[in-house]
Design brief:
This is Riboflavin biosynthesis protein RibD. Residues 230-351 form the CMP/dCMP-type deaminase domain. It is an enzyme of class 3 (hydrolase). Its EC number is 3.5.4.26. A nine-stranded mixed beta sheet has the order 5-4-3-2-6-1-7-9-8. A five-stranded mixed beta sheet has the order 11-10-12-13-14. A hairpin with a 2-residue loop joins strand 8 (202-209) and strand 9 (212-218). The protein contains eleven helices and 14 strands. 26% of the residues lie in helices and 20% in strands. The model has no long low-confidence stretch (mean pLDDT 97). By secondary structure, it is of the alpha/beta class. It is elongated. Helix 9 packs parallel to helix 10. It folds into two domains: 5-218, Dihydrofolate Reductase, subunit A (3-Layer(aba) Sandwich); 230-375, Cytidine Deaminase, domain 2 (3-Layer(aba) Sandwich), CATH 3.40.140. Bound molecules: NADP nicotinamide-adenine-dinucleotide phosphate.
Length: 377
């Protein structure tokens, strides 16, 4: 299921705190950075914060710039992004500023939290119960499918950020480092303990804004099993983009592939007909660049814009068999192979029979087909 693009946004002190323990909100950003945050808000369809942040900060979470609001209206969008909160207790203050400013409001909660939330808020907000527990994937799916949200900005607090990052659901982290210390172990931290991706995130940008620094990171670790992560989507997009590098052909598909270790390290990439070899396939080209003895292959994921082939005339082994032979047991792909060159190809079946997880993300099918449009009816 497609989810919105999930952007986590936070500011921290030099010692990693989100706030102090005083009654007022600690201002960590600089004025120019608050304006940058306003711009990011204006780009979002929805802004989400946890109920803890509502209780601690009583925020409005508005797009403050009239020009940015006018630009949203001119684009046919709501003047303000949808405001969303999550709560298990349903303990929400109906007088909080969140409910009385901006546009539509939405509460996600559990079966237990729904009644108290609805009683407290009345018609001020829509209340959606997601079952006995709040399931973040169900929440993202609901936001995408029912509320049309394509870009979600998450503004904390730490409990919410921690879950989204640990569950592999964050596409991007925008972190601002402020030049001050909190020094109080009772203060809230950005990320709590638990299981994070093993390797390094990908740094996409650093920017000095007055006396703070903005750092933008993308998680890189593939998912495990059949559940896709946000990083799976990034890597599959990369594979689809690699397909554009293929020398054109009337007799074979243009495909891109990337092999990624469990900690998010890229092991190899390839595309069809690369390096002057007129018949090499993308997965074959990528795997040929890996060391067959590399122990990371057993936990790696192969991303391929097209399902790995199950039969081919040009070489003895089809790509599904090459993947199994390399020890890889997880494949993410955008598009099942059509009957254009091989009837009833089933690379997915070959992989699944060998014990691999195959994850199909059909939202990338259009992108995977782009360099192959001349081959398709
Ligand atoms: N510096 C920054 O950029 C920044 C940004 C935002 C917030 N903050 C700070 O962060 C602090 C608040 O952080 P926090 O971690 O305490 O709170 P939080 O993450 O804002 O909210 C936590 C609350 O959200 C609800 N919640 C979270 N996950 C849930 C789940 N899976 N199912 C159901 N409900 C769930 C629960 O509400 P119920 O308790 O109602 O069940 C939970 O207590 C404040 O001090 C605030 O100033 C700083």
């Amino acid at each position: 299921m497609p989810y919105p693009y999930v952007l986590l946004s936070a500011a921290v002190s030099l010692d990693g705190y989100l706030d102090d323990t005083g009654p007022d909100r600690l201002l960590l950003s600089s004025p120019a950075d608050f304006d940058r945050v306003d711009e990011v808000r204006a780009s979002a369809d929805a802004i989400l914060v946890g109920a803890g942040t509502l209780r601690a900060d009583n925020p409005r979470l508005l797009v403050n710039s009239p020009e940015r609001r006018a630009a949203r209206r001119a684009e046919g969008r709501a003047e303000y992004p949808l405001k969303v909160t999550v709560t298990a207790s349903g303990d929400l203050d109906p007088d909080a500023r969140f409910w009385h400013t901006g546009g539509d409001k939405l509460v996600y909660t559990t079966d237990k939290g729904a009644d108290p939330a609805a009683r407290a808020l009345g018609p001020t907000a829509d209340v959606v119960a997601l079952g006995p527990e709040l399931d973040w994937r169900a929440l993202l799916e609901h936001l995408h499918d029912v509320r049309g949200v394509r870009r979600l900005m998450v503004e904390g607090g730490g409990t919410v950020h921690t879950q989204l990052l640990q569950q592999g659901l964050a596409d991007e982290l925008q972190l601002v480092l402020a030049p001050l210390f909190v020094g109080d172990p009772a203060a809230p931290r950005l990320f709590g303990p638990g299981g994070y991706q093993g390797g390094r995130l990908h740094l996409t940008e650093t920017r000095r804004i007055e006396d703070v620094v903005l750092m933008r990171y993308e998680p890189t670790a593939p998912g495990t099993g059949p559940e896709p992560t946000a990083a799976d989507r990034h890597w599959l997009r990369t594979a689809c983009e690699l397909a554009a590098l293929c020398p054109p052909s009337r007799t074979a598909f243009s495909v891109g592939a990337v092999v990624v270790a469990a900690d998010g390290t890229e092991l190899a990439r390839g595309h069809s007909r690369e390096g002057g070899d007129p018949v090499v396939h993308a997965e074959e080209a990528a795997l040929a660049k890996t060391d067959p003895a590399d122990p990371r292959l057993a936990g790696a994921t192969v991303y391929s814009s097209l399902e790995p082939c199950s039969r081919r005339a040009s070489r003895p082994a089809p790509c599904a068999r090459l993947i199994v032979g390399a020890g890889v047991r997880r494949v993410v792909t955008a598009w099942r192979e059509p009957d254009t060159f091989v009837t009833a190809a089933d690379g997915t079946g070959v992989l699944v029979d060998a014990g691999a997880d195959v994850v199909l993300l059909p939202e990338f099918e259009g992108l995977a087909k782009l360099p192959n449009a001349h081959l398709l009816p």
